[in-house]
Amino acid sequence: MAITKSDLINEISEQLDISPAEARYELESLLEVMKSTLASGENVMVSGFGRFQVNDKAPRKGRNPATGEDMTLEKRRVVTFKTSGKLRDQINGVTHE
C-alpha cells in the first residue's frame, strides 16, 4: 500500500492544524518547486531525507516488446532518489545511542 497525495494533505492538515485547502496549497507549492528545479537539471537535497538527482541516460539499443523489432532508444534524463543515512537507518530500525 502507498500513501497518496490526499493522505499527505490530510496528514499535513492535521499536524499543522490548518485547513485541507491550505495543506493542499503548501504541498502543491513544494512539489512545483521540486519539479521545476529537477527540470532545470539541478538536484534537490532534503537534509535528513535524501537527494533527488537528475541523471543523463545515453542512447541505447532496445527492442519493441510487441513486435520484437530492434530499435534505438533516445537519450533521456531520469530522476533517481538516494536516501540519507538517517532515513535509511530509520527504515531499517537502526537506533544510535
From TrEMBL:
<keyword id="KW-0805">Transcription regulation</keyword>
<dbReference type="Pfam" id="PF00216">
    <property type="entry name" value="Bac_DNA_binding"/>
</dbReference>
<dbReference type="GO" id="GO:0006355">
    <property type="term" value="P:regulation of DNA-templated transcription"/>
</dbReference>
<dbReference type="InterPro" id="IPR005684">
    <property type="entry name" value="IHF_alpha"/>
</dbReference>
<keyword id="KW-0810">Translation regulation</keyword>
<dbReference type="GO" id="GO:0006417">
    <property type="term" value="P:regulation of translation"/>
</dbReference>
<comment type="similarity">
    <text>Belongs to the bacterial histone-like protein family.</text>
</comment>
<dbReference type="GO" id="GO:0030527">
    <property type="term" value="F:structural constituent of chromatin"/>
</dbReference>
<keyword id="KW-0804">Transcription</keyword>
<dbReference type="InterPro" id="IPR010992">
    <property type="entry name" value="IHF-like_DNA-bd_dom_sf"/>
</dbReference>
<protein>
    <recommendedName>
        <fullName>Integration host factor subunit alpha</fullName>
    </recommendedName>
</protein>
<dbReference type="InterPro" id="IPR020816">
    <property type="entry name" value="Histone-like_DNA-bd_CS"/>
</dbReference>
<keyword id="KW-0238">DNA-binding</keyword>
<dbReference type="GO" id="GO:0009893">
    <property type="term" value="P:positive regulation of metabolic process"/>
</dbReference>
<dbReference type="InterPro" id="IPR000119">
    <property type="entry name" value="Hist_DNA-bd"/>
</dbReference>
<dbReference type="GO" id="GO:0006310">
    <property type="term" value="P:DNA recombination"/>
</dbReference>
<dbReference type="GO" id="GO:0005829">
    <property type="term" value="C:cytosol"/>
</dbReference>
<dbReference type="GO" id="GO:0003677">
    <property type="term" value="F:DNA binding"/>
</dbReference>
<keyword id="KW-0233">DNA recombination</keyword>
